[in-house]
Amino acid sequence: MIRRVGLVLAVVLLSAWVLLPIYLIAVPSVSVRQSVYAWPKNFWPGEFSADTVRFFFSVEGVWKATRKSLVVAGITVLLSLLLGAPAGYALARYRFTGQNAYRLAILLTRAFPIVILSIPLAVRFIRLGMYDTPLAVALVHTALALPFAVLVSASLFVGIPRELEEAAWTLGCSRLQAFGRIVMPLALPGLAATGIFAFVTSWNEVFAASILTLRERTLPAFLLAVLGDAPLPFRFTGGFLLILPALVFMFAVRRYLFTLWGIASR
Questions:
Q1: How far is CA 57 from CA 24, 98, 204, 217, in A?
Q2: Among 55, 205, 227, 256, which one has the highest count of C-beta atoms within 10 angstroms of its own C-beta?
């Protein structure tokens, strides 16, 4: 009984820790402007209004930046899965000299601060004609998400019995067919989690996007440039809309996450 109460209390505290900041940002973004400036603040929302959201999207450049963010995040998810999943499969299925050192090298790529790498990358992209393009930002975001994609995919494929693939081979499947028909369906929950991480990494990243773009800014980079002079309701709406797509994306792939955690379906 005590253990159950402690577990429920831990779940409530963890949920409050995650949801309370989102709630405090979301309520002012959909309230009337007067309530945003009012003091003392009411914890419960009063009168709802979409005026702030409409004003936010009426500002020149917001829609364009939102589209750029979605394009960059989509490319990042695609590249992270296309590069990370095969690398993780190779780490899980094949043994080679220096395998552990290779795993460590993958982790060490996250040790390089993006602040140090951004200027040389900007120079390189200018020489290649890729500066101020969504592809350049997506490549940097992919580099940030790829170590996680490789290591999570490797741990995922290790958990899938090799005997299932061998059985498919004996039944006439090629290696590629066995991977697509047997391994991939079992790996989808973990790959969905990898995709979520890549999407959130790209959607929220602001430093590289600010350095590598001038006109083709993503939404976080655009908001960073304009929020200093923006009114308070605009800031709350901008913060909430930075959170919202990640929440929607996680909700869309939630069934894969539940499967990954051993819950049948929700």
A1: 21, 52, 19, 16
A2: 205
Q: Are 209 and 218 in contact (CB under 8 A)?
A: yes
Task: Please give the C-alpha separations between residue 119 and each of 69, 125, 131, 257, in angstroms, as whole numbers.
Answer: 21, 10, 12, 37
On average, the pLDDT of the chain sits at 82
Judged by DSSP in three states, 48 sits in: strand
Name the token pair of 91.
């780490």
CB-count exposure of residue 56 (10 Å: 0-12, 13-18, 19+): buried
- pLDDT at residue number 259: 56
- The span from the CA of 17 to the CA of 22, in Å, is 9
Describe the crossing of helices 219-226 and 184-204 by its angle, rounded to 10 degrees.
20
Contacts of 209 (CB under 8 A, 6+ apart): 72, 137, 217, 218, 220, 221
Model pTM score:
0.77
> Given this model, what pLDDT does residue 264 score?
47
Give pLDDT, residue 203: 86
SS3 192: helix
Going by C-alpha positions, the residue among 190, 183, 188 that lies closest to residue 167 is: 183
How does pLDDT run across 119-137, given as a tens digit for each residue? Answer: 888 888 889 888 888 899 9
Query: How long a stretch of residues is the chain?
Result: 266
